[in-house]
Design goal:
Elements lengths: L2 H8 L1 H9 L3 E5 L3 E5 L1 H7 L3 H4 L2 E2 L10 H6 L6 E8 L5 E12 L5 E10 L1 H15 L9 H11 L8 E7 L2 H8 L1 H16 L7 E6 L2 E6 L5 H15 L3 E3 L2 E3 L3 E6 L12 H21 L4 E4 L10 H12 L5 E10 L5 E12 L3 E3 L1 H11 L2 H21 L6 E5 L2 H4 L4 H12 L6 E6 L6 H13 L3 E7 L6 H6 L4 E4 L1 H5 L3 H16 L3 E5 L4 H9 L4 E3 L9 H10 L3
Parallel strand pairs: 12-13, 15-17, 17-18, 18-19, 19-20, 20-21, 21-22
Antiparallel strand pairs: 1-2, 1-6, 2-3, 4-5, 5-6, 7-9, 7-12, 8-9, 10-11, 14-15, 14-22, 15-16
Length: about 550
């Protein structure tokens, strides 16, 4: 050990530091490292000759604050997280505490710095930040990181040049044809191609699924931004070679140029960017409606109320995730006893922009998009849980009825989904009735198989809106169904012809041993006629409109045993 090191080790304050820490150093007033203990040298892989008497800045990742040595008062202690470069060029993080050291005349002479190794913690923080701010699949930024970028770049909508909302066309077909692993590979390759269009001024992030957003801040005019969008369309449609397959895909892009908008006035810069992204998305959806493989621009006139069906298309995509759907229940009444014997579950949608939307408006759109499968599964899960909770409270009904779309009924996982839901909710299958329309059973062979599988579970199956579809009466004697529901249109118009049709359905159904339910009963006259024809059950506004679950509970509690 050299003499200088021996000198510092004899000082009581230095000795105290040695006793209290595993790593410390002494730095003179000029910033030179004049002493470091063995733990310090070993951790950083330096020898005495490598570092002693040399500027401490040489191994620091950031400049060493010499003013701390020269200017601080006797009581001051400086604490900071610093990075130090090891001899093998790796970086370590330390929490450093610097204490001033004064000579006999009270002049700043040197500092003693102790180090606590926080490298592992920093790596963990970086990992957590990576999860929070990076898309797991593409390693692109995600929307969380967008807000950091807005702060760092001091961005608002007025100093952007354009927002590009990019979505792959018919990507679901690739998922179905090649499987998730290949589909994920396509997404990664799309992300790599998009990065080729990046500049330091722009921000690219993965929005969701097969959707990406580019915020353009570089100095481009509108024509140049459109040219960039055109280039992206052309670049992304070049086939993707994956293993032995060549996969072709096209994209739709929506462009939103900045302009003064009533949607953004008075809102935060984050709200303004979010609103602009949504507007770009609307333009992207318009590009898809035109066949895809193109871009469309969000026009000023779109600030006015858009065509209602178009807004419904856009809002439905996130309605389930935003928990905008709810389920109402309309009681089914035994026409002899006037007791509640069941209830029909009815889907309702209260949208953040449109308010309550009629099922006649949104259910066909759910079916067109295929979203009816996931929404239908959500309905079944909620209805079964609700029925089970009523039973646990001692409130008993014969059954709960759920409408099932033809799209959902034909889904290959439908019966398995029903099984899993019944198992998860522990509801006896005999309390669940599936309602299908006549159009669902046009393909008698496949419909028969599904109905038989449902019946094997112990469930009931009914034909809804009977008399309005195309089914042959000969189908009915072949199908193992339990219930016929007479469509409301026949009950509304009980003139001579209407009575004949209704009476025919009731008699035919009873002869085939079906339960007969009349829908849409709204008057005492209708009720008396149906009772005279010995119709079994009914539902309609005469008894109750669709109500919240707690109101069904009240009805069950109040009716005589």
């Amino acid at each position: 050990m050299n003499e200088k090191r021996k000198h510092y080790l004899t000082d009581s304050r230095v000795q105290s530091a040695i006793n209290q820490t595993t790593m410390f150093s002494i730095i003179d007033v000029n910033g030179n490292l004049i002493y470091a203990n063995d733990s310090f040298c070993k951790r950083l892989n330096y020898t005495e000759e490598d570092i002693f008497g040399k500027p401490f800045n040489r191994i620091l990742k950031s400049p060493f604050p010499l003013h701390i040595v020269r200017e601080q008062n006797k009581k001051a202690v400086w604490k900071e997280e610093i990075q130090i470069q090891t001899k093998d060029d790796t970086t370590c993080w330390f929490e450093a505490s610097m204490v001033p050291y004064y000579d006999q005349d009270g002049n700043p002479d040197k500092t003693i710095t102790t180090y606590y190794d926080i490298t592992a913690r920093k790596h963990y923080e970086e990992y957590i930040e990576g999860i929070a701010f990076t898309d797991y699949l593409t390693k692109l930024p995600n929307q969380n990181q967008l807000y950091h970028w807005i702060d760092e770049q001091q961005i608002d909508i007025n100093n952007t040049k354009a927002i590009l909302y990019i979505s792959l066309d018919r990507f679901k077909q690739i998922n179905e044809a090649f499987g998730k692993r290949i589909a994920d590979k396509v997404i990664r390759m799309v992300a790599e191609r998009l990065q080729n269009f990046q500049t330091k001024d722009n921000f690219l992030f993965r929005k969701d699924g097969d959707e990406f957003v580019v915020i353009i801040k570089e100095q481009l005019n509108q024509e140049e931004c459109m040219a960039k969008a055109e280039s992206i369309v052309n670049k992304l449609r070049i086939p993707y070679k994956i293993q032995d397959s060549q996969i072709s895909i096209t994209v739709s892009i929506g462009i939103r140029f900045p302009y003064k908008s009533a949607y953004t006035n008075g809102h935060s810069k984050y709200d303004e960017i979010d609103t602009s992204i949504k507007q770009a998305r609307k333009a992207m959806d318009l590009a898809k409606k035109k066949g895809g493989n193109r871009y469309c621009i969000h026009a000023h006139h779109q600030e006015k109320p858009l065509e209602r069906g178009y807004i419904i298309d856009l809002e439905l995509k996130e309605a389930l995730a935003r928990e905008e759907f709810s389920i109402m229940y309309q009681p089914i009444i035994n026409l002899k006893s006037h007791k509640v014997v069941g209830a029909e579950a009815l889907l309702r949608w209260n949208n953040r922009e449109l308010g309550f939307v009629s099922p006649d408006e949104f259910i066909p759109k759910l079916e067109e998009s295929g979203m009816i499968i996931s929404v239908g599964k959500w309905i079944l899960e909620n209805v079964c849980r609700r029925m089970k909770s009523w039973q646990e409270k001692g409130l008993l009904m014969q059954r709960i009825s759920v409408n099932v779309s033809p799209i959902q009924f034909k889904d290959k996982y439908f019966v398995q989904d029903v099984k899993e839901i019944l198992n998860d909710t522990m509801l006896d299958a005999s309390y669940l009735e599936i309602e299908i329309t006549e159009s669902t059973i046009l393909n008698l062979e496949s419909s028969m198989l599904t109905i038989l599988e449902l019946k094997s579970l112990g469930m009931h199956v009914s034909i809804d809106d009977f008399g309005t579809g195309y089914s042959s009466l000969s189908y009915l004697k072949q199908l193992p169904i339990d219930t016929l529901k007479i469509d409301k249109s026949f009950i509304d118009d009980l003139d001579r012809d209407g009575e004949i049709i209704t009476n025919t359905i009731i008699n035919m159904g009873k002869n085939l041993h079906f339960r007969i339910i009349a829908e849409g009963i709204e008057s005492e006259k209708q009720l008396e006629y149906l009772k005279s024809q010995q119709c079994h059950e009914g539902q309609g506004y005469l008894f109750s409109k669709p109500v919240q679950p707690n109101e069904i509970m009240t009805m069950l509690l109040q009716q005589p045993s």
